[in-house]
Amino acid sequence: MSNNESFWKRLLKKLTKANELGHEEDVMTDHDYDGIRELDNVLPPWWLIGFYITVAISIFYYIMVYALDKYGQDDEYLAEVAQAEAAIEQYKKDNPELFSDENLVALTDPADIEKGKALFTEKTCTACHLIDGGGSIGPNLTDEHWILGGGFKNVFNTISKGGRPGKGMIAWEATINQKDRQLLASYVLTLQGTTPATPKAPEGDIIWKAGDE
Ligand code: HEC
Fold first, then answer.
1. How far, in Å, CA of 27 to CA of 37, rounded?
2. What CATH code is carried by the domain that includes residue 175?
3. Ligand 1 pocket test: which of 107, 119, 129, 140 has the largest number of ligand atoms within 8 Å of its C-beta?
4. 151 to each of 80, 113, 124, 134, 194, how far by Cα in Å?
5. I want to staple 140 with a disulfide (CB 3.0 to 4.6 A). Which of 49, 58, 135, 211 is the partner?
6. pTM above 0.70, yes or no
7. pLDDT tens by residue, 166-202
8. Residue 167 falls within a domain, yes or no?
9. Cα–Cα distance, 173 to 119 (Å, whole number)
């Protein structure tokens, strides 16, 4: 134990080179500021080592970044952007139904229409258009009159981008993914010709019937 202690003591002394207390006279300078005097202690080796390391690193860094043009922030940034872009491409490839416009057409499979119907309630469309599409705050979706245009493309676009400003129909593309908006638009189109309990009077001058282009 005593051996150990002296080892630590010796190490500490080596790293600090501190002057023993009581021997201040040995390192006292003749500087005297209103009675405050200055000791000329050596820089502690632990500090010096750290300082030399930073100097060495700065030289290495300078050569790498400025002389050899490697590992600079620009390169790191570009590498990360490239990596992120590759990841986006991969994600698009893995989820074609979310991104490709190719398959962006009205779905007719009854299973898809059921999904659209479920989403119509789940995404609170019913709050303004009622469960049967008869309309309240929002227009009647069962008639042949459209404010913003009928047909899959227009309806999909209205759901995605919203209605006229201030009318209450928001752009849902921020909160509903493309696939679900496709299911919703497909479902909305099937409402035409059904008989809601309390149909709102037709609104809009655009006439579109199922089967029209
Ligand atoms: C806060 C009320 C509100 C909610 C919720 C709402 N809508 Fe609307 N919706 C409206 C209003 C109001 C309009 C008419 C917009 C206009 O006049 O520009 C409209 C218009 C539409 C139209 C176009 C009708 C036309 O005549 O051109 C469609 C399609 C539609 N909404 C579908 C949906 C779907 C699908 C949802 C759910 C994701 C939804 N709406 C949620 C209020 C709402």
1. 11
2. 1.10.760.10
3. 129
4. 42, 15, 22, 18, 16
5. 135
6. no
7. 999 999 999 999 899 999 999 999 999 999 999 999 9
8. yes
9. 14
